[in-house]
Amino acid sequence: MNQQVAAETSSRGAEGRMATFFKNEKIQILTVAIGTAVAGEFKINPVQGDLFRIGLGGSAFLLLMLLMNRLPYLKTGVFTALTVVVFRMVLDFISAPHLFSIEESGRVHTSAGLYYMTFAIGMFVIQSRLPQMNLLLLSGVTALIDFGSNTVEMICRWGLTGSDIMIPATWGYIFLVAVIRGFFTTGLYSSIAVSQIRALHSEQKKRMEQMLAVNAGLYGEVFYLRKSMDTIEHLTSSSYRLYTDMKREGLTEYSQRQLSITQEIHEVKKDSQRIAAGLLKLFDQQSKTVLSLFEILDYTIRGNRKYATMLDKKVTFTARLEVNYSTSEYIPLLTILNNLTSNAVEALGEKGSIEVSVCEQGQDTVLTVYDSGKGIEQQARELIFEPGFTTKFAQGGSAATGIGLSHVHDIVSSLGGRIQLQEADTSLWKTVFEVKLPTLLLKKGE
Q1: For residues 439 and 209, what is the distance between their CA atoms, to the nearest angstrom?
Q2: What is the pTM of this model?
Q3: Whole-number CA gyration radius for the chain
């Protein structure tokens, strides 16, 4: 076990170091530079000679700049320009070492470096406005930056090598490529951004489910802790009255012992108050946060589907929602539905069906949980909401705690509602629990 934990810890540490490694600014700039240099070698030449070529370098550079939009664009442009020039000169040397000339190779490829430098300057100008730009505007602006960068490259090539740049078809190709590259690359960037947003949303939803599950369980624990505190309060008062009665009767020794017991009970009460205060800090029951009935039902089904899988049971869940509104009382509602639905899961054999419905009847919102388990025997129906009563036993033969349904009953009552075990009116459903809660109370925080 210790070795497994150590291995998992080491793995998480390695992942953390890897994430930190790629968040390093220098590493990101190096990635942009090398990625652009390599991508630039995948090219075609639409016009005769090497005057103008269509490569993936420009697209890769733009995409990486958009994805890493917190980089210093000017610094990245300078480093990328130098890397591209050096990379192409090295390739010239490898392909024809006997004909290689540093001066000639540098003169040929300097214009390409100037293209990326100009492109970086253009991106730097719009860097602060990138988050506010819509896709169409961003595509048009990057196309103009690309065209301007190619223009600077062509002028530089003409000045260094004497290339003929006054060919109309060449400029037509340059403009067309700039537009296609701008729209294609920004479209690809948008797709990646949407995928990242979806992944982030999925992760946030998972965390929300976990938080709601914890809060629903916490609500039940705090509810019973408060109930216990009321009992302790009454017990303290009764114990103190017994102490005063003993003292009045002259039972000094017994009265002192009783006073000591009273003080210990009072300490238990104070400890319980501290625990309750600490638990209440973990969630704000009076929070302005609201959830819709649809979301509450969805979280209930999702959580219990995982619970059924954990128990190796094949359960078919269905949800029926006939009314939908938002409520700030989502934690007690989740607590009620989770308890009833998890009980239904436990009542099933290896497979079965569960339906959870929400509807409105008059001034009440009705939550109903149906299951196709073995049902509850007639003689047990009047006892199921009593604390300690249970029809479920652990594998070793010991009875379960039996506080589930009494727990639900008390929470429903505290909300001014009522819970009943209904007669199943179909052959499919064996157990039907119906909870009625005042709609006005639930909508109060809407």
Answers
A1: 24
A2: 0.52
A3: 36
